[in-house]
Every structure is written in C-alpha cells, then in structure tokens.
Amino acid sequence: MNIEQVLPQLVVTYRRGLLVPFIGSGMSAPTCASWTDFLLALAHAAGQRVPAPLLVAIAAGTAESTALYRLADDCVRTLGARGRVAFAAACRAALYKPGDRPVPPQARALARLSWPLVLSTNYDDLVLRAARDRYDDERAGGRHADGLPPLFEIVGQGVQDCHVVLRSLDVVTDPVLWALQGYLGDRELTRTALTDAKALRLEREVVIGHQQYQGVIHAQPHLRRALAEVFRRRSLLFLGSGVQEDYLVNLFGEILHHHGPSAHPHVAVFTEGKRAMVDEKFFRLRLGIEPVFVPDFAAIPALLDRIAVNVTPPRELDARTFVPGCAPYELAYRVHGAGMRPADGIVLRLRNEAVAPPRTTDACVAVSVGWSADHTLALGGMAVELLQAAGVGAPRWRDFSAIATGELVHQHGANPAIFAIAARDTRDRQLPDRRDLQIIPMALGTFLSHIDGAYASATIGMLAAGSRRPWPSLFPFIMMLSAIRTFAAAPRRTLREISIAIVDPAVWFPLLAGKLPVEQVLASGTATVAVFVGDPADDLEHYAIVIAAGDTVRDVAARCGLGDGDWHVTVYPLPAGAGHSVGDFEAFEVVPGATVMFAPVSEHTPANFRARPLEARDAGA
C-alpha cells in the first residue's frame, strides 16, 4: 500500500482515539545522533575498537542488528564499570550533537496533534520540548493555562508506570509519553516536573546493550503484558523507529503468538532507502504491520500535518486537502427517570457542530456567555457567530433580558428563540465573570425548566468552556450531563429533545473513543474518581472510586478506608479553578471525574484534612 491509501485509515483511527505513534531515532534527527552514530560515539568514549567490516556495513546502511547489539553490549560493559554517573554522561554526550539543539520539523509536527499516548524508544526530550513550545506559544496568545493543550507526563518501565499507560487506554488522562528504553532529557518539560527519584529511575532504565534488552524483555513481565495490551487495543504508527530490530520483532511475535492478531492494523513508515531491507510480506503477515514508504524523513511532517488538517480542519480550507473519510457527527441517547418508559424520555443528541439558528418554530438555541467588568453580558465567539448567522445586526447583539428567575439565563428581545446562559458565580461583584463548575447544573437546569412548555427541542453550546476556563473542557461537559439527568427524571410538558453542540476536539474525540462516562452519569448520577494515597515522591496507591452526586472528600476518604489521622489533600479540578482556596475539605464536594490525592503530612504538605473512621463520623464525633 502507498501513503495515499493508508492516510484515510490513519485519520479514522485518530478520530476514534486509537492511533498511537511509536517513535524512534528518526524523529529526532538530525539534532540527535542516529542509532549507529550513537553507538560509534559510545565506542569512542569506551575506547572500544570497531571492526573494519562493521564500519563499512554501517557506512553502507547494511549493518546487521546482531552485530550492532554486540558492539553496544561491549560499550555498556566498559562504560558501566565506570559508574552510573559516568555512564549517563557518556550516553548524553553521544546522543546530542555539538551546538544548538533545535527541535526538528517532524517532532514539531507530532506535537501539533493531541495524542493520549506516545511510545518512544528515544532517550531525548525533543518531542517534550516541541509540546512545551506549543503550550508556551498558545499561552502567549492569551489562553488560560487549563485551556491549553496539556503537556505530557513521562513514564518508564515500572509497574506503576505501566498502570498509567493502561489507564490512558480507558479514561481521559494527561498525555503519556512511554519511554520504553529510558530517558536522559530535561526534567522540567513535563506537566509535572520530574522528581529526583523519578529522573534517576528513568536514567537507570536506559537500554542499549544486548544484556539490558534481555533484562527488559524477560525480567519484567508487567512491561511485556502492558505492551501487549497496547499492541492489541491500539493502532500503532511507527515513525522513524527501528521496528526491524530483532528484540522488537521477537517481542511483537510473542504478543501475536499468545494473543492472536490485533483487531487494529498497525502501520510502519519507512524511507525509500530502506525498501530493499524491508520484508513487506513478513511484516504484513507475521507482525500485522503494514509497511509504507516515503522519500525521506522530511516527508513525515507533511504526513502528520495532513492528518491534522483532516481531523481538525481550519475554516475556509481548500477542500482538495481532504482525503476520503467517514466521520461520526452525532451520538444519541434516550434519558428517562424511574418509572418512565425509555420511549417517554428525552432524546439527548451530542453533535460535532457549532450552534446554529433554530430551523423550526418549536426549537430554540442557547449559547454560553460571561460577564464584563461593567456587569453587562460578555459575548464570546459562540454567541456572536450565532447572532450573525441569525441575521442579527451588531447594534442588537446585546438585546438580551434576564428571565424572571435570576441572572443565569437571558432571552433575546428580537429573536426570542435565542437564549444566553451565563454560568458564572456572581456573588462576588468584583469578579462577576468567575467560573464555577457547580454553577453549571444550576444554570442549565434553570434554562431547561424555563423553556419546557414553550419549545419541543433545544440546542445548547458548551457552557463555561471557553479558552479562559480554569479546567479542561470535559468537566463542564460532565456537569451539563448531570443537569440533563436531573431534568429528565421529572415529568415534562413539551421539551422532548436536547442537543449539545460540541466543537472542541478535547471533548469530541474522547466521546468517540468511549472514554467519557456519558451513560453512567445520565443513568445513575455516579462517576468514577481517581484517588492516590501516599507520598508523591514515592510509590502511590491508586484507586478508582465510584462517587454519587454531592459526595465530599470525607466520603472519598471513607470509601478508601483511610483511618483516623491528618492528611494533606489536593483535588483537581477545584470547581472555581486552581487559584481559589478551599476552606473546609471535609465538606468539599468532589466533581465527577476528579482526581483526589491524600499525602502524608510533612514540612511541604501541611495538614488540611482529618480523616475519621466511618463509625466516629456517623456518631457525630
């Protein structure tokens, strides 16, 4: 197959959250040394003589991997005898070429897309640096930190690291870079800066020689099992990687032997110069990997940019850039309360489109707005685009009046089927535009109750989810679902259909991947929270705890079995954002999908919560 035939498949698997890059040294060239140049530099540092025939084969690009691993093993044995610090220093010196370290175009192109998981056999930090540059550029443009593309967390070969990787397959997490062969890069480029202990562990996990590879493959069954799970449940896109290396071929062969062929096709991108060395039939039949060829590594940025264009197309784009495709644009559910037939419930449609003017007289629409400092409605892009599409001139854009029940919902005077929902906490008149997740169900519930009796359908844009939001956009979405569940549980008059218009790929793609608990929230009002207990600098206990609406930190602590004692609690997200303090964590409500951490009290983590046994709490102790 050629790249044009494969590209539509890559676009589809990306949209479904199944495409996972597996990157190798080609993604870091020319800033970092190639694998063979790296080995030759290590050999020089170790004082190892490289046989002349091997030098000739390396220069011709025909060196066998077995000979290279023998050379690597000799280098590791010699340099390792000088101590860990000297070995790591030699590896860094061999990895990076002298002078500046520009991020190559292929790494920048990879970082322009959002990836839940990236597998890497590289030791360097260039992809992390590219992601940080993208983050910094968008923040300089005025976006709030939590509205920016999240930075990677880096994990290695440990058991808990593998747990993080596997969790990313099922739920929305920070993007994960899985450094399969160790990491020697900057410690400050990840979302959470690496601790001394973690940086040292990743450094010690550097794999170069034959004996090290054997140790990783045979002595760490959890790593093999985790990789097998990823291989089976995701579609791997090999970019600049040494997928022909014997140890990888053997590893993938073992996975296929034990688990059978993957349901998802894998694709390996090779340069034309490697075509003679690639056994296409073997890759296709024995490894389940489809080889495709590009002229050189310079073609990889163009490939990644074409994927980006087709999954998140900018407006007014030349239609000739699109490849053949099939993109889901709607997910639909019936939502009903106890004692009601499903057919009598509300139809909820989640649609990948912008809010548009109503097409029938029994339909209405609502957009999200905020408050300006002068206490007038602040109309964002969603509201302005809708009003323009409805033919409302600029002088009438602010022709909204609050409905009788308060300041949360406003109706347009000239176009009464257009509403504005200001899901803001207005109690502090000095901060009228303050967002709060707990306000969203109240605001949406007020709107739905108001229109029931006048309209049969309503389309609503994402609430409080603009670029200056203090949390990822999936949290406002979950709070909107909570409001719809509450509304659908009671008898209604006329409202039969609700649509949520979703344009943010950070919400839409996880929906397609099945990573957001839509049915769980709509049916039961429960949700899962991630709980970590222990010292963040050490190994943590990790639990997945089911909570109900209104559950507090003390409820989470009780479900985790925390005994009597003081803890330092952190919760993400805080409903009003990270910049707001919490006075009483014991009564603090945890939002669905949150992360709660209980750390032991220390000089840096003072006590802010006291866990009590369930019996003592119930007795009012």
Overview of this protein structure:
The chain is α/β, with parallel strands linked by helices and 621 residues long. The chain folds into 3 domains: 3-32 and 96-321; 330-522, Leucine Aminopeptidase, subunit E, domain 1 (3-Layer(aba) Sandwich); 527-618, Ferric Hydroxamate Uptake Protein, Chain A, domain 1, CATH 2.170.130. The strands form 4 sheets. It has an 8-stranded mixed beta sheet, sandwiched between helices. Strands 3-4-2-1-5-6-7 form a 7-stranded parallel beta sheet. The longest helix is centred in the N-terminal third of the chain and has 16 residues, at 65-80.
Could you give the topology of this structure?
Elements: H1 3-15, E1 19-23, H2 35-46, H3 52-60, H4 65-80, H5 84-95, H6 105-111, E2 117-120, H7 126-140, E3 153-155, H8 159-168, E4 176-179, H9 196-204, H10 210-219, H11 221-233, E5 235-239, H12 246-259, E6 266-271, H13 280-286, E7 289-294, H14 299-311, E8 330-335, E9 346-351, E10 363-368, E11 370-371, E12 377-378, H15 381-389, E13 400-402, E14 409-412, E15 418-421, H16 439-451, E16 457-461, H17 474-488, E17 497-501, H18 505-512, H19 518-524, E18 527-533, E19 541-547, H20 553-559, E20 565-572, E21 595-599, E22 609-611, H21 614-618
Parallel strand pairs: 1-2, 1-5, 2-4, 3-4, 5-6, 6-7, 9-17, 10-15, 10-16, 16-17, 18-21
Antiparallel strand pairs: 8-9, 11-12, 13-14, 14-15, 18-19, 20-21, 20-22
